From TrEMBL:
<dbReference type="GO" id="GO:0016491">
    <property type="term" value="F:oxidoreductase activity"/>
</dbReference>
<dbReference type="InterPro" id="IPR036188">
    <property type="entry name" value="FAD/NAD-bd_sf"/>
</dbReference>
<dbReference type="InterPro" id="IPR050464">
    <property type="entry name" value="Zeta_carotene_desat/Oxidored"/>
</dbReference>
<dbReference type="InterPro" id="IPR002937">
    <property type="entry name" value="Amino_oxidase"/>
</dbReference>
<dbReference type="InterPro" id="IPR001613">
    <property type="entry name" value="Flavin_amine_oxidase"/>
</dbReference>
<dbReference type="InterPro" id="IPR017830">
    <property type="entry name" value="SQase_HpnE"/>
</dbReference>
<keyword id="KW-0560">Oxidoreductase</keyword>
<feature type="domain" description="Amine oxidase">
    <location>
        <begin position="10"/>
        <end position="444"/>
    </location>
</feature>
<protein>
    <submittedName>
        <fullName>Hydroxysqualene dehydroxylase HpnE</fullName>
        <ecNumber>1.17.8.1</ecNumber>
    </submittedName>
</protein>
<dbReference type="Pfam" id="PF01593">
    <property type="entry name" value="Amino_oxidase"/>
</dbReference>
Amino acid sequence: MRIAVLGGGLAGVSAALRCADDGHEVTLLERRARLGGLAGSFRRGDAHVDTGQHVFLRCCHAYRGLLARLDVTGSTTLQERLDVTVLRPGAPPARLRRDRVPAPLHLARALLRYDPVPWRERLALPRAAAALRRLDPADPAVDAQSFGEWLRRHGQGPAATRALWDLIGTPTLNARADDASLALAATVFRIGLLGEPDAADIGWSAVPLGELHDTAARRALDDAGVRVRLAARVRDVARDLAPDDGGWRVAVAGRDGAQDVLAVDAVISALPPEEAAALLPDPVGAQVGAAAEALGASPIVDVHLVLDRPVLDVPFAAGLDTEMQWVFDRSAAHGALPDGAQYLVVSLSAADEYVGLGAAALVEHFRTELARLLPRAAAARLLDGFVTREPRATFRPAPGSGARRPAGRTALPALALAGAWTDTGWPATMEGAVRSGQTAAAVVTRGHHDRLPGHDDRARVAA
């Protein structure tokens, strides 16, 4: 088969590799001059800047499989066991570190010692965790509930929600507990914290994300025989009603403005939903447009601070009783730091209140917040400060959102959807994106959904 993959993010790269590995002729079209989508990087002067601070967990088998396929596992770091430092103003750091014992006892000691949660709510944690494990995330009634409301019904008050459930859930779901679907929250916590004891060990890229998802991805795609066209904007996608040369025609404009038309047997759209809605023929385009409107979007903002001295002694830390949610030391990936300097990135999920603020105000505000948590930061000199923001980073994982996410299979033959916003059973993460690409490849090459680990094979059809 001749297959066109539209979009070069993780979903598109995964779909293209899967199709090529199955022996098909694949063309990957990406409107940017690089691959990686929202999990990429760019140059700012001599510095390398990631478009967002992405981490993965040991349980992210599809994404880790992609890293292995790209031969870049060695360019990432994966904790030997979950270990999170939690910073608080005017208080000693707290710590969440798992023990090397079977689940669910692997976190028992850490949670009993976790003093940001009052004793009464700490003692209620086992009951809440047990109830969470009994939930079925595929149940529409579970999806329709708010995670925050469910927590309150199970003895988890504001302190526990803020200091534990939101500490982990907000960056993973890109929503706070009150705004999140119970089904998606249950997926995160059941797989990550309540399943295998090592499932939540945290991994991250030791190099700029572009080295993984662009440079290495291009190399792997080329080796697999995929034709990659960058700076190629898709203008139209249409069914060929007299398919002597294939079932689909894809009109493409190159960087020089020249246009051509690809005749292909199948199309995988790994575009953001708004772009897919504008390009794909009805009824799929209309259905995707309705899904995009119903799902909405949630922003992520990153505040980048280059300080003249080290102030953070761990690779990353969470913040509590502060607006600073998580902070990452990205010095090793910066590429052009002055001697003795440290490059920190403050990552803000569900960042509606920050996405519209000016860069200078955000830099100054979070420099002050950092000094409240790390006393050494108060004396450090700011060498550089800037902001990256993605207003439509993910869909909003609100109660009922599961029913609004379209499946990979569509009503039109040999047209599949991919992207972390589709019905993967996961929140909008790198893992979800990779799974969606693999599922879309299976749809067009074998005509059915592959059952992926952890994915309930619901039979909804787009349009």
